[in-house]
């Protein structure tokens, strides 16, 4: 099948979009934004404390620097080297100071007069620098994530926004400047709110929110809340989550994270921001049409956006990962000594991220603050002293994931201990992020250049592809043994090659059932190649159209590999199939006194001798005429016939011991007798026979023995022999109970006499085989104590193999009533 016009256009647009995304820097400019993220588990408390310092960036920066200095390194050797280096440095500084004392005293007197005029200028410059620093450290976006705002049972059924609004009002009043509210989302006690500077509100569009619960039975006590923002021309997503608690529930936290990431999605485009309503007396102005920006996200075809489709993703909240494999006393000692670099190695979140179980590709700023959980309410540094005495942990975290390197620069990552009502401490992260703004004119110019290059390549060269081989030879193919061969299709042109296998004019099908092609269609980018696999499998379904009486089956099939706007390739598949007793009919099997592939060379030699003798006789008959010569020739022929009879009698006498036991009474195939005879003498007491499958390699070995040897000599698993018997019966070209007798078989289930009368109506060969199998199954059931076989299970297995219902090849399931009646037919005969 050729690729449709719509898909062709889609592939072309996709190539243009990928080029635009890869070369985005050519037509866009990066803008810096300051982002403030706060996560706080309020523990169902009211906002009565002072929150001003949470948003005081200068205060937080000083605190962050102090924590950096107080935090000790992980290794003692590093401390020793730093001390050694500092001693040397102080000695050098003392010498330099002593030398400079005398030289600098004279210079100071000269520079006093000049310095008085410059002092005023320096003061003005310092004031300007301070103002710029304040502007640089003012957050443009404020993201607030709260947990356990409302832990009542009513919140699990219906959201109560009053408590969350009280917290957000309190925080908004603590902002150093005015910020406009952008979006708010809540799931029970989990809250996420976004605030933005008023001058940036015009740059925001396509705002959307979503949430997903992950608690037990889908309750919203745990879960995640998210907000999507498109600012300038970059997509930002913020997620606030509250994961499962308890020290040992690491796997549950991981699964909560996965369910939240999989289920959170947004609309690509939304009607936001809302335009301001026109005033009554406002004059109408002519609208200037502007070029719309080109869509750079090919997934917009699906109408839903996943969180990983964003350019920048921030994830915050009470993640509840604890400190494992360490005692509480050791944790408290390390906190007192400020050995946080060594304590972080016991963090469960860091461990799970290393193994790749959660937060793949996420980053986190370095932790220099003490654990934020669990404190005694009303204290700043006193960890849990209740009966449970939980070990401290960094449960409250802020992480991010970006599409580009250095897109996020962490400036502050700390906690604020002065809020004492909750058992958690708030975590604050201040970041510098880089956002892109597209210049539409440059974008269209660059897009037109890409389209021109595409048009040139398409016009200059049509698709061209080569095939490694056009002929595939499958020699000595065996029954139910697949063979695979591959060809390599290579695109040697400049354009995209679309290929597909098409049927011939006279045939509605691409290829017969015994050939399987993968892939049947596809496309190739320039200078790429693909492997096309051809699988050959001959089984009872594909043998129906074959003449199984022939010793060797040779077939040739021509396949057409069609290329769009280019020449087609013709691939020839040659098949040489070895004859097998599997897949033949009972009538043809009975005619073979020897195995199907038994002494093929000797048979061919005898046939060649006969042909040569016949040629000699014809020549002599033409040259010489007379009764004497004719009599001599007759005598020679009689002698040769006697010799052939003697040879055949010798071979038959060797096999009389094997065949006389059954062939004198029942006219059945020798292959069936070999399998059943082996099972009777070797496997009748084997537990679970016919209930389990055999080894595939041994099944192939058994088929080869049946095809080539008179005596069945096999050393292997009895289960393989049992499976081969079932496969032999199922592979018969005409089943033991032929399809035309199927309905009669179902109707005869009333009594035993009716079943016996039905057997008499079957053809002689089928009748003998069915009786022989029933006698074999009765022998098996006599040894039920050892082989542990039940009559019902045995009847169910063999009823599926013996009965040939008319829709066998169509693979249509029978009714339950038919299955029961078919099984009862054998149960009546076995009892």
Automatic annotation (TrEMBL):
PANTHER family: INOSITOL 5-PHOSPHATASE (PTHR11200), TYPE II INOSITOL 1,4,5-TRISPHOSPHATE 5-PHOSPHATASE (PTHR11200:SF300)
Annotated signal sequence range: none
Chain intervals with Basic and acidic residues compositional bias: 94-134
PROSITE patterns: RHOGAP (PS50238)
Keyword annotations: Cytoplasmic vesicle, Endosome
InterPro entries per record: Endo/exonu/phosph_ase_sf (IPR036691), Ig-like_fold (IPR013783), IP5 (IPR046985), IPPc (IPR000300), OCRL-1_2_ASH (IPR048869), Rho_GTPase_activation_prot (IPR008936), RhoGAP_dom (IPR000198)
Positions of the Rho-GAP domain: 656-831
Protein location: Cytoplasmic vesicle, Phagosome membrane; Early endosome membrane
Protein name: Rho-GAP domain-containing protein
SMART domains, A to Z: IPPc, RhoGAP
Lineage: Eukaryota, Metamonada, Anaeramoebidae, Anaeramoeba
Principal place of residence: membrane
Region of interest (Disordered), ranges: 68-134, 608-655
């Amino acid at each position: 099948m050729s690729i449709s016009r719509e898909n062709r256009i889609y592939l072309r647009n996709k190539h243009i979009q990928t080029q635009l995304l890869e070369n985005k820097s050519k037509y866009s400019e990066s803008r810096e934004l300051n982002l403030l993220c706060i996560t706080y588990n309020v523990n169902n408390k009211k906002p009565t404390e002072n929150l001003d310092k949470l948003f005081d960036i200068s205060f937080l920066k000083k605190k962050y620097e102090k924590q950096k200095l107080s935090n000790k390194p992980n290794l003692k050797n590093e401390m020793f080297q730093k001390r050694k280096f500092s001693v040397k440095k102080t000695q050098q500084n003392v010498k330099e100071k002593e030398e400079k004392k005398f030289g600098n005293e004279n210079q100071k007197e000269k520079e006093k007069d000049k310095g008085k005029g410059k002092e005023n200028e320096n003061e003005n410059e310092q004031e300007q620098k301070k103002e710029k620093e304040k502007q640089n450290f003012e957050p443009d976006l404020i993201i607030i994530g709260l947990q356990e705002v409302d832990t009542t049972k009513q919140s699990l059924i219906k959201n109560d926004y009053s408590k969350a609004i009280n917290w957000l009002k309190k925080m908004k009043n603590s902002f150093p400047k005015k910020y406009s509210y952008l979006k708010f989302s809540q799931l029970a006690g989990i809250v996420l709110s976004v605030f933005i500077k008023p001058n940036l509100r015009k740059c925001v569009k396509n705002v959307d929110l979503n949430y997903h619960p992950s608690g037990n039975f889908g309750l919203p006590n745990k879960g995640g809340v998210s907000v999507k923002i498109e600012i300038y021309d970059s997509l930002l997503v913020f997620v606030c989550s509250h994961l499962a608690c308890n020290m040992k529930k690491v796997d549950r936290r991981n699964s909560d994270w996965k369910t939240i990431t999989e289920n959170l999605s947004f609309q690509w485009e939304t009607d936001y921001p809302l335009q301001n309503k026109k005033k009554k007396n406002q004059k109408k102005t002519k609208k200037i049409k502007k070029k719309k920006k080109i869509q750079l996200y090919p997934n917009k075809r699906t109408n839903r956006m996943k969180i990983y489709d964003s350019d920048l993703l921030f994830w915050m909240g009470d993640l509840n990962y604890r400190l494992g494999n360490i005692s509480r006393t050791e944790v408290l000692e390390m906190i007192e000594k400020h050995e946080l670099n060594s304590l972080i190695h016991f963090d469960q979140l860091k461990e799970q991220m290393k193994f790749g179980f959660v937060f793949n590709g996420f980053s986190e700023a370095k932790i220099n603050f003490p654990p934020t959980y669990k404190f005694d309410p009303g204290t700043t540094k006193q960890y849990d002293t209740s009966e449970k005495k939980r070990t401290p942990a960094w449960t409250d975290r802020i992480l991010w994931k970006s599409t580009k390197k250095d897109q996020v620069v962490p400036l502050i990552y700390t906690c604020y201990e002065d809020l004492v009502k909750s058992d958690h401490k708030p975590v604050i992260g201040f970041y510098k992020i880089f956002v892109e703004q597209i210049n539409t004119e440059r974008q269209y110019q660059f897009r037109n250049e890409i389209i021109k290059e595409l048009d040139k390549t398409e016009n200059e060269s049509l698709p061209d592809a080569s095939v490694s081989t056009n002929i595939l030879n499958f020699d000595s193919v065996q029954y139910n043994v697949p063979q695979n061969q591959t060809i390599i299709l290579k695109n040697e042109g400049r354009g995209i090659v679309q290929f597909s296998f098409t049927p011939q004019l006279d045939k509605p099908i691409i290829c017969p059932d015994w050939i399987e092609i993968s892939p049947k269609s596809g496309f190739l980018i320039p200078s790429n190649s693909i492997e096309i696999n051809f699988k050959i499998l001959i089984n009872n379904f594909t043998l129906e159209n074959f003449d199984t009486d022939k010793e060797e089956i040779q077939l040739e099939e021509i396949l057409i590999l069609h290329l769009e706007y280019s020449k087609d390739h013709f691939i020839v598949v040659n098949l040489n199939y070895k004859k097998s007793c599997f897949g033949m009919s009972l009538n043809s099997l009975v005619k073979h006194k020897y195995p199907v592939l038994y002494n093929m060379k000797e048979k061919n030699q005898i046939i060649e001798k006969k042909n040569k003798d016949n040629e000699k006789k014809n020549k002599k008959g033409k040259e010489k005429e007379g009764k004497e010569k004719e009599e001599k020739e007759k005598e020679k022929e009689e002698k040769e016939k006697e010799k052939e009879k003697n040879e055949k009698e010798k071979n038959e006498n060797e096999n009389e011991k094997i065949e006389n036991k059954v062939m004198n009474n029942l006219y059945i195939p020798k292959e069936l007798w070999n399998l059943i005879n082996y099972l009777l003498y070797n496997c009748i007491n084997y537990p679970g026979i016919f209930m389990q499958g055999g080894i595939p390699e041994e099944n192939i070995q058994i088929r080869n023995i049946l095809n080539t040897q008179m005596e069945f000599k096999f050393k292997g698993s009895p289960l393989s022999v049992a499976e081969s018997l079932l496969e032999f019966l199922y592979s018969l070209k005409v089943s033991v109970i032929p399809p035309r007798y199927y309905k009669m078989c179902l109707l005869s289930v009333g009594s035993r006499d009716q079943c016996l009368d039905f057997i008499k109506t079957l053809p002689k060969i089928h009748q003998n085989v069915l009786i022989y199998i029933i006698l074999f199954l009765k022998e098996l059931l006599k040894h039920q104590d050892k082989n542990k076989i039940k009559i019902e299970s045995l009847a169910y297995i063999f009823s599926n193999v013996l009965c040939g219902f008319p829709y066998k090849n169509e693979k249509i399931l029978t009714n339950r009533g038919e299955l029961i009646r078919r099984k009862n037919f054998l149960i009546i005969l076995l009892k």
